Amino acid sequence: MSLLSSSRDTTRWTFEKGASLYERSWIVNHFLGQWDERIMALKPEPPMLDLGCATGRMLGKMIDSGYPEIHGFDLSLNCLKILKSKIPETPLLLGRGFIEDLPYKEGYFSSVLLSGVLHHLEDPQAAFAEIARVLKPSGKLYIAEPLFPIGARQIVNLALDIYPLTGDRRFYTPDGVIKLASGQNLRKKESLIKTISYILILERC
Questions:
Q1: Helix or strand or coil: residue 40?
Q2: Which of 94, 140, 187, 198 is the most buried (most CB within 10 A)?
């Protein structure tokens, strides 16, 4: 059992306090930036929703590439403030809150993005249910996550079960994600697996 009452609150506190550090992070701008390029090469269809958009790493690239309708959603007010200061005059539509409670109408989005976000979620099945709700039929969910060796993942997850200090909750294999999402009207479309990361594409049934 976790020693913290809610990893959602822990994650929010972490990103509120560390928003500027996140913005300058080498890991974010280089390692996660590689995920951005791979996802953009897949040409997600608009309208697109970037869940956990943080300070706009991916959104800025999407705007530069000419995407006509992009929505960003994050739990951190400070991250969204940085995002707005970087790209104040854009077609971006921003929202704030938890992924398990999305303020969007049913079947609106063609594409939803979870890049480096899934391992922060306290209730991924509830999040998948909400994502499926806001996706159009045959809409795509793009998930990018680290991929740990099995022993390392088990050790990390055991520690996070006890104390999710930085808001990380659990790391999943692609098969684990597919299993979680299968009961939420989402099915596997494609997977792109590298040595230490993967991109998984799920489709709304």
A1: helix
A2: 140
